[in-house]
Structure formats: structure tokens, C-alpha cells
Design goal:
Strand content: 5-15%
Largest sheet: 6 strands, parallel
Number of helices: 10
CATH superfamily of the largest domain: HAD superfamily/HAD-like
CATH architecture of the largest domain: 3-Layer(aba) Sandwich
Shape: globular
Structural class: alpha/beta
Radius of gyration: 17 Å
Strand order of the largest sheet: 3-2-1-4-5-6
CATH class of the largest domain: Alpha Beta
Order of helices and strands: EHHHHHEHEHEHEHEH
Number of domains: 2
Length: about 220
Amino acid sequence: MTPFQLVVFDWDGTLMDSLARIVASMQAAAIDLGIEPRSRDAVHDIVGLALDHAISRLHPDLNQDGIRHMHDRYAHHYVEGDKTPSPFFEGARELLQDLYDGGVLLSVATGKSRKGLDRIMQAHRVEPLFHSSRCADETRSKPEPDMLLEILDYHGLQPNQAVMVGDTEFDLEMASRAGVPAVGVTWGAHDINRLRRHQPRVCVDSVSELSNWLRNPTV
């Protein structure tokens, strides 16, 4: 299926079309706090970071109590208040199944919390496909390399035996700092120019193109 023994995926904006829900929930949380909501592009800019880190970048005037309050309101809106659909991108679930059936190890490195990732995996019934995962409340946030290094250590693999797939420069910088080859996907939060800053092996425009590259990573 692929020469890589392990494929690590980011979640939001890479596997799941959840960016609109993230934006709506972040804007609703700001309104709850009586502060001005940030734009869609501003929210896209921080997708992939640990939530508290993301909030502090969006709203640098908030103190720690304000960050915690906004964290709680964002979580409420994302889980309960907002009804924006967040399906898998077309072909993503099939790609995961094909890789799994081919004996490839699958993992997730995400800015989500452990509770959030477990909830969404169980809701979409994909938890059995993944052999490991690391979340933002378990280690240092992207773009630090810790998530990937801990996943590699868990599986007993070297960086060149894995590949990281993500839609933000935070994913690709994390991979670069961990010495892991990376693929940038262009259908998510950051544009291709930002993705290229960290010299991914390739940038792809569709899940089918990603699937083809994983089978034959010649670039």
C-alpha cells in the first residue's frame, strides 16, 4: 500500500471538514464573553494549536481567567450549541480503511483534547482504525515536535519510517522538527504558500491525490 510503516494524520481540516464549525464556535464564544469575534481567516490561522494557545493568539488581551472562560464556552458551542455539519472529507474514511487493511499503522496528532478526539472518533466509528494518537492536552502543542516523537517512540519507529499529513504550517513545522517526512493538504486551514514554508515532500489537492502519492512517494 505504501512504503511508510506509519501514517500520522492531523484531524481538523485534514480528515474532517470541521473548519466552519470551529469558526462558528470560536465566534460564539467571543460573543458570550462580550468581546469582538475574530474573522474566519483569523480563526483559520490558529487551527491546529492547543485550544488555550489558540485563544491567547486570537485574543491577546485576555487574562488566564478569560482564556479559561472562553475555552469553556468554545467547548460548549462546539459540542452542544453549534449544529454545523463536520463530515469526513470525501474519500478520507475510505483511505483510512485501505491503509488499515494494508497493514499500515495509523495515528493522529491533533490540537484537540483527548476527550474531544475520543468523542468524535467514537461518534464516527473510526476509533478501531487507529493504533495510536496524541492530543494537545497530553504534551506540548504543535509546532513543537513532541506529539510525533512520542508517537514514534510508542511504535518503536524511526522518523523516516513515518509520514505526517496535515493542513497547517504547524503540522509541517512539527514534522520538520521531528525529522519526519510530511505531506501538506491544500483543502484545509492554511494556503499552499504557508504549507511550503516547511518543505513538505509534496502538497496535494485531493484525498485521491494523497492516496496515489502514499502508494508511490517519488517526490
